[in-house]
Write a structure and sequence with these properties.
- The chain is an alpha/beta fold.
- The chain has one domain: HUPs (Rossmann fold, 3-Layer(aba) Sandwich), CATH 3.40.50.
- Helix content is 46%, strand content 19%.
- It has a five-stranded parallel sheet, with helices on both faces.
- It starts with a strand and ends with a helix.
- It binds 4'-phosphopantetheine.
- The site of 4'-phosphopantetheine has 9 residues, from strand 1 and helix 4.
């Protein structure tokens, strides 16, 4: 039984994330999509909301489950008998930091990191860019699942109203 983790912030989940999760699910017995819950970071969506959106987005992939984690990813892997971390690599620019994290993680625990090249149609995709483009009224409908697009549009409108009230 090979259980792996796809970790991330997923603020919010994009079609690029789902591509990596689906491909990991076809390679391994079980995939845990682990949402990092780091209270110090300023997120658009709460951890509960991010987990809920991922759960909906992954509901049709039978060997995928979604969980949250705080603290070290390697501790989460140990607790859940996870043998490898699966990460998408969009470009060479991702590689430096991802390699550093992979090596740090393997120094902390006996865990492999498996890099999966991002499909070319998603190579420019990042949650941060999706939020920025959407906040300025750009069309991101094809970059996230439809229900996420609705939630994103609503949340950004709420934020814009809050800011105009200040
Ligand atoms: O989507 P992101 O923001 O690139 O995800 C980063 C994440 C959550 C995978 C990474 O920050 C992480 O693993 N955080 C947990 C804390 C930890 O283990 N840090 C040491 C990494 S070497």
């Amino acid at each position: 039984m090979r259980r792996v983790v796809c970790p991330g912030s997923f603020d919010p989940v994009t079609n690029g994330h789902l591509d990596i999760v689906e491909r990991a699910a076809s390679l391994f017995d079980e995939v845990v999509v682990a949402v990092g819950v780091n209270a110090s970071k300023n997120r658009l969506f709460s951890a509960t909301e991010r987990i809920e959106m991922l759960t909906t987005a992954c509901q049709d992939i039978p060997n995928v489950r979604v969980d949250g984690f705080s603290g070290l990813l390697t501790d989460f892997c140990r607790e859940h008998e996870i043998v490898a971390i699966v990460k998408g690599l969009r470009a060479v620019s991702d590689f430096d930091y991802e390699l550093q994290m992979a090596q740090m993680n393997s120094s902390l625990a006996p865990i492999e990191t498996v890099f999966v090249p991002t499909s070319p149609e998603y190579s420019f995709l990042a949650s941060s860019l999706v939020k920025e483009v959407a906040a300025f009224g750009g069309d991101v409908a094809g970059l996230v699942p439809a229900f996420v697009h609705t939630r994103l549009t609503e949340r950004l409108a709420e934020r814009a109203r809050e800011q105009s009230d200040e």
